[in-house]
Amino acid sequence: MSLPQYLIPGVVLVFVVFLAMAFLVWYWRPSRYLRRKLKSVIPAIQALKPGADAEPVDRDQVAKILELDATLAYLWSEYTETLHEQYVHVDGERRLIAVRATVPAEVFFNTHVLVDTPLNTEFFRHLPGLLTGIGIIGTFSGLILGLSGFKATGSAEMVKASLDGLMVGVKDAFYASASAIGVAMLITFIEKIALNRRYKQVEQLTQAIDALYEAGAGEEYLARLVKAAEESATHTAQLKQSLVADLHQILTDLTDRQIQVQQESVQTALAQLERIALAVESGTQRQDSAVQNMVKELLETFINEMKGTFGGQMNGLGDMMNKSVEAMREMQGEFGKLVTDLRQTGQSSTEEMAKKLGEMMDQADTRQKLLEDQMGSVVKALEGLAAVE
């Protein structure tokens, strides 16, 4: 069963028509809409360009112009975040004098966002090549279909009929391929022209927005900073010179005053020393007799105190000696009693008597140590008095 000859050209035409309609719906129509939108927005923004002495353009006015399109309104809101306002204080009032652009408008209002994405340029840029490929495929498919029905054997009439069918199939295939190539060329022409015009409109839009506000805020601030630094350096040098001169004068005056005060102090001290020397010379003669009487009184007082001290201690020593003699006598009597008791008691009371004898010997040792301590204290007191003399 052979395929009809119109099948291949029909399939090619269907693909060509479908792709052409897609180009019209998803490229040509959005391109026309974008053209009308930019054509209405650009003149309105250009009309807002301020004069030389005029106030800065209110950003709300531009927002009202761009609010017709959601994409443009969003891009404008992002762009306004980069604007820098400059204020001055006049009579205590803060006044806006300028609005500076810190980045070009092209950073936000670029062709990729406004043209390439809405128009799907990345796809339709390759559409002509796709149509050309379909036309070539249709040509080869028509040739293959015509050759499949060609019969080179048989009568002349059959060969002629087969040749006619082959030529018709090839002709239809070439027609379909030519139509696809022609449509591809037309789409390429329209796509490039429309794309170029939209790019130009976007460039005009960015230029109109850049014209609203002056750029170069960073350069101006840098220049002001350099100027302020230079003025600060100049003021610092002047201040340093004035401080050095003032400090030199202050130190000179202070040194002179100190020298003068020291001289006056030395003169005053010398005068006082002279007065003291005179007073000492005059009072020496008067105080000789008084000093002699004072020394005599001190010696008499010292002798009396020595007598009182050593006399009391010697009396105490004599008492202690008497007590010791009496203790020895008592001990002797006790020994006598002990011997008598030993004789009387005999062997049965030996232990008891030995105990009593030990107690008596302990009492004697204690009294002897007490006597030695008292004698040592007396000797130390005598040595201390001798050292004081």
Summarize this structure as a short list of keywords or feature phrases.
single chain; mainly alpha; 2 domains; 3 strands; elongated
Number of helices: 9
- 3D shape: elongated
Order of helices and strands: HHHEEHHHHEHH
Derived structural class: mainly alpha
Describe the largest sheet: 3 strands, mixed
Average pLDDT confidence is 76
Number of strands: 3
Mind telling me the C-alpha Rg?
68 Å
Strand residue content:
under 5%
- The strand order across the widest sheet is 1-2-3
Terminal Cα span: 162 Å
Helicity, as a percent range = over 70%
Parts with pLDDT < 50 across at least 5 consecutive residues? none
Number of domains: 2
What does this structure look like?
- It is built from nine helices and three strands, in the order αααββααααβαα.
- It has 389 residues and is mainly alpha-helical.
- It folds into two domains: 209 residues, no CATH class; 164 residues, no CATH class.
- It has a three-stranded mixed beta sheet with strand order 1-2-3, with helices on one face.
- Helix 1 runs antiparallel to helix 4.
- The mean pLDDT is 76.
